[in-house]
Amino acid sequence: MENLTPKEIVAYLDQYVIGQDDAKRTIAVALRNRYRRMQLPTEIQNDVIPKNILMIGSTGVGKTEIARRLAKMMAVPFIKIEASKYTEVGFVGRDVESMIRDLASVSMKLVRESENDKNAEKIEAYIENKIIEKLLPPLPAAAGEQKKAEYEASFAKMQAKFERGELDHLKIKVEMPLPGLDMEESGLPPQMINVQESISKVLGGLNKKGKEKEVTVKEAKKILAAEASAELLDDEQVKELAIEKVEKGGIIFLDEIDKIAVASGSQGRQDPSKEGVQRDLLPIVEGSTVHTKLGMINTDHILFIAAGAFHLTKPSDLIPELQGRFPLRVELDSLTEEVLYRILTEPKNSLIKQYQALMNVEELELIFDEEALRSVAHFSSLANEKAEDIGARRLHTVMEKILEEISFTADEHQGENYTVTKEMVKEKLGKVVEDEDTTRYIL
Questions:
Q1: Hey, which CATH number is domain 337-433, 1.10.10.60, 1.10.8.60, 3.40.50.10420, 1.10.10.10?
Q2: Of 308, 304, 291, residue with least CA distance to 55
Q3: Does the chain have fewer CB atoms within 10 Å around its N or its C terminus?
């Protein structure tokens, strides 16, 4: 899906995110430009840098949902992270370079999965041979021709049984893989990670074998899949492919960027979680080289999509150099009553479909009147006006309030139909929404 046209990207996002056409178009063009750049001659490729995007909009209008769907759609390394969790270098906490290391880990996983798919037949054959050899130990080299012929016939029979799943219940002893330590998750500096990895390799060399454990053939297939992958894939080639994938197609969704902006006139200019983080972020967004477990990764062509509500600050409160690195600005619209109704009914994974599926587990058919859905949208919009505007997330709160009773007693209504009507919605929400104080506490 790396070479989708902008129209195809928007059409995919339309299935899950209602409205916000400007944001979808901007992101679709940015993603298509990644593909276009790769088709250019090498000498021009390096000069075409990605146009990073800054999405501005209140909470619950679809910023994160767009990011989530992009992650599922694109076969490229993608991570979503919160800018507020990083601290300036020299303070306790995660430094901004760790986002590139996280992206490298995602890329490694993607490439490994892709290579495993390409080598699926070889991996299957490796697992099959390993298991059959455990059940039918190989003959000694000095065995006669007759013994060899008998062994081959027995092996072929075992293969047929293996393919039919007739051996799944049998128990065999397999070597359990040694637990790997993901040093990068610890937030340690790269130099310390290298030292720890060197020590673990030395210790691993002294004790390469894991413990043997008796498991069923069915369980052994999963355990041996990792061993087969390690044996058949060239680790250095996988690393090279992973680095290339990050450098040419990596995307970082930097959420809550407004939390590291410092309002003009604020006393918090020396806060390590604010302006210092912006200064540390700048070289990565501009383009620099970061040391990771895979090797050195250049960030010149990684696409950054930043998002924030900017209620207490403005994009202009970010340091000027960082502002200049996000040339594409897109403002997401607040959600009207009509849009809330469409969010309830149109998406492929709409809230209504989710609740109906949950109730189907209890053999209860949940039905929503058209007028009831309109009322839900109306009361949600009203609650957003009276209390803090939390966008589409208000629908979750409202729907839980309406369905809490039937959710609790669903097992008593097996085989029945339960219709949510306009009157029912009004009864559950009318008084709550009318009282502003109650709205703030309950919805």
A1: 1.10.8.60
A2: 308
A3: N
| Topology of the domain comprising 6-110+243-331 | Rossmann fold (3.40.50)
Beta-bridge partners for 419: 367
Domain residue ranges of the chain, discontinuous segments joined by +:
6-110+243-331, 117-240, 337-433
Q: How many CB atoms lie within 10 A of CB 55?
A: 29
The fraction of the chain above a pLDDT of 90, given in percent, is: 28
Q: 310: which 2 tokens?
A: 């900017």
Taking CA atoms, 429 is separated from 324, 341, 377, 434, in Å, by 46, 16, 12, 8
- Residue 106 CA to residue 108 CA, distance in Å, equals 5
| Rounded-to-integer distance, Cα 422 and Cα 369, Å | 7
Whether the predicted pLDDT of 180 surpasses 60: no
Q: Return the pLDDT at 360.
A: 93
Considering the entire predicted model, what is its pTM? 0.80
Closest CA to 91 of 290, 348, 281, 271: 271
Rounded to 5°, angle at Cα 119 from 113 and 120: 80
373: which DSSP letter? H
Helix axes 120-135, 98-118, angle to 10 degrees: 70
What is the spatial distance between Cα 278 and Cα 235, in angstroms, rounded to a whole number? 36
- Cβ-contact 136, 167 below 8 angstroms: no
In angstroms, the first-to-last Cα distance of the chain is 40
Overall size of the chain counted in residues:
443
| Element spanning 3, H or E | none
Phi and psi at 5, nearest 5°, equal -75, 160
d(CA 81, CA 78): 10
Residue 279 Cα to chain centre, angstroms: 27
The DSSP result for 243-282, as a single string, is HHHHHHH-EEEEE-GGGG---TT-SGGG-TTTHHHHHHHH
